[in-house]
Each structure stands twice: as structure tokens, then as C-alpha cells.
């Protein structure tokens, strides 16, 4: 059985940097023809993060078999883990992309449209970064506590 590896911060950082370069290139090249950024992505990302935090709290109690919490189905835990890994990567790409997109606008804040886009882009980048943090918390909640019998290795006794 293949044990899933935790999400590596280097992968998330690389994805954010690549997306930041792409966002910067788009912003510099097409700034005059791009539409106004929608503000609706900010609450959407924050709601997704809040849902993942609530799921993490519930899942952690179920995995640790706390009193009153029903055991978790292994396929459900695997689905939560897949959601956490996908959300972390998506959040890193969005945070980097919107940060890169917003950076060139900081030089032109005197124009109202640029100022509005810079605020929305910055808020979107921050809410995407918050989604990454929530996804990492959910991924951590999916970890199964170590079995004391398995610390000594298979076939060995604790004595």
C-alpha cells in the first residue's frame, strides 16, 4: 500500500512563483484590454477555507476516536485528503497569479480603475493564501495517529 506524502511547501512555492510570473506577464502585456476584476472570488475562497477548517475539526475528532464521534470511513478520509491537496495547490496558484497580476498596478494607483483592481487583486491573493493554510490544516487532520505496536516494527513485541 502506498502511503500518501504530505504536501511539500516547495511545490506550493514553485506553483505560486510560476503563476506570479504568468500573472505579471498578463498584467503588463494586456493591462489596457483586461476587464475589471470581480470581487466575488474573495468571499468564495474564504468560504471554501472556512468549510475546510470545519471539516478538519470534525475529521480530526473522528480519526482520533474521541467520545461521541463516530469512526470515519477510510474512503471519506481519502476524499478529504484529495480535497486538501487540490485546494492547497489551487490556492497557491491563485495566490501567486493574483499577486503577480496586481504588482504592476501598484505603480499606477493614481487611476481609480487600477486602484480598484489592485485592491481586489490583493484581497484575492490574500484569501487564496488563507485557503492554502486551511487546506494544510485539513491535510494534517487526515493523519492517522501512530499505532504504538507498529513503532517497534512488524513482528516485534514491545517488551
Question: Quick gist of this model?
Answer:
With 159 residues, the chain is mainly alpha-helical. The chain contains 4 helices and no strands. The protein has one domain (9-30, 37-144).
Question: Could you walk me through the main structural features you see in this protein, from its secondary elements to its overall organization?
Answer:
This protein has one domain. The longest helix has 30 residues. The radius of gyration is 21 Å and the shape is elongated. With 159 residues, the chain is mainly alpha-helical.
Structural class by sheet pairing and helices: mainly alpha
Strand content range: under 5%
Shape descriptor reads elongated
Mean pLDDT across every amino acid position: 88
By DSSP (H or I, 4+ residues per run), the number of helices equals 4
Give me the strand/helix succession. HHHH
Task: Tell me the total number of β-strands.
Answer: 0
How can the largest sheet be summarized? Answer: none
Q: What percent of residues adopt helix (DSSP H or I)? A: 55-70%
Low-confidence stretches: none
From the alpha carbons, calculate the radius of gyration and give it in angstroms.
Answer: 21 Å
Overall tally of domains? 1
Task: List the defining traits of the structure above.
159 residues; mainly alpha; 0% strand; single chain
Amino acid at each position: 500500500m502506498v502511503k500518501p506524502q504530505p504536501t511539500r511547501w516547495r511545490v506550493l512555492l514553485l506553483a505560486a512563483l510560476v503563476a506570479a510570473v504568468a500573472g505579471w506577464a498578463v498584467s503588463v502585456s494586456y493591462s489596457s484590454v483586461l476587464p475589471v476584476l470581480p470581487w466575488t472570488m474573495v468571499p468564495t475562497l474564504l468560504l471554501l477555507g472556512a468549510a475546510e477548517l470545519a471539516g478538519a475539526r470534525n475529521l480530526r475528532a473522528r480519526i482520533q476516536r474521541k467520545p461521541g464521534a463516530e469512526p470515519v470511513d477510510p474512503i471519506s478520509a481519502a476524499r478529504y485528503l484529495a480535497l486538501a491537496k487540490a485546494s492547497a495547490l489551487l490556492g497557491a496558484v491563485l495566490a501567486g497569479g493574483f499577486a503577480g497580476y496586481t504588482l504592476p498596478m501598484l505603480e499606477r494607483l493614481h487611476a481609480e480603475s487600477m486602484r480598484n483592481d489592485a485592491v481586489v487583486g490583493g484581497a484575492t491573493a490574500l484569501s487564496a493564501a488563507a485557503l492554502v493554510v486551511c487546506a494544510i490544516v485539513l491535510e494534517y487532520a487526515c493523519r492517522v495517529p501512530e499505532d504504538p505496536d507498529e513503532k517497534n516494527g512488524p513482528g516485534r513485541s514491545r517488551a
